[in-house]
Structure formats: structure tokens, C-alpha cells
């Protein structure tokens, strides 16, 4: 993932990954014979690590912040992080790479499923019909992807991303009631 952030998809090679990981080229090729297999394995690891880090961070929030606003703040932190930048790099590269595209499409859906699962676990009560929740979360995901691209360009120098996040949290508080027992 570090190679993707630092070098982009086209600059990432199995040789560079092995060098950065401090393993021999032979060991790398034994476990991950192609760049695609290596990236797929890294994405599996990344997705689970991000989910665990998010849930841990939410659980460690002060009780008064364990609400939808706190959850969105944490999600925004995830989307501004280096792992998310690596995923954005892959998504952009997949637009023109027929081999990478299926992996990224699958990953996109799996990320959305993780977001949905975590949301339903943290906020079992909403004012939305159950069928509307996946679409709402897909919208939030798309918004955060776009905001993260803007953030990578300007680090929110003018406060536009923060303003969007504030408005999103205002709407979310109307949809997701404050949990009684954090």
C-alpha cells in the first residue's frame, strides 16, 4: 500500500515491494507470483485492518462522542489516511486497466458491505426504511471518496470539506437517533 501511495499503480512493482518489505525477491515470488496476487492479498489485509482500527477507535471515543457524528468524524479520518489514498490510486488506475478493474469493483463492494455491517452494528435504530440504508451509505461512501480526492489536493485549505462534513452530520443526526447506551 505504501508503494501505491508513494509511486502510483504504474510505479509499483513486486521488486520494489520486496525491497521495502525487506524480503528476497524469491520469497516474494513464492508467496505472491504476480503483482495482481500481491495487491489482492494486501487489499484483504488492509480491509480487515481498517475495519478493526475503525471499530476500536469508535469504542475508545468518550461516551458522549459515540454517536453518528463521532462515527462520521472517524470515517473521515479513515478516508484522509494513506491506506485510502492507496485505494484511490487503484480505483483511478482501474479505469484503464482491464485486469485491475474487476479487483477494484469487488473491493468497492466489499468496502461498502463492511461500512454497512459496522453501521448496522453501531446504529441498529434509524429513521430510514431498512431498504434505504444501503443506498444512503453508498451515497456517503461516494461523497467521502470525492472529498478525499479534494483533500489530497488542498488539505481543506479553504474549509470546504469541513463544511460538507458538518452538513452531513446535521442530516445524519436527524436520521440516526442518539444511542441511549453507547
From TrEMBL:
InterPro entries: BetI_C (IPR039538), Homeodomain-like_sf (IPR009057), HTH-type_TetR-like_transc_reg (IPR050109), HTH_TetR (IPR001647), Tet_transcr_reg_TetR-rel_C_sf (IPR036271). Residues 1-50 form the HTH tetR-type domain. Keywords: DNA-binding, Repressor, Transcription, Transcription regulation. Residues 13-32 bind DNA. It comes from the Bacteria. PANTHER family: HTH-TYPE TRANSCRIPTIONAL REGULATOR BETI, HTH-TYPE TRANSCRIPTIONAL REGULATOR RUTR. This is TetR/AcrR family transcriptional regulator. It comes from Actinomadura meridiana.
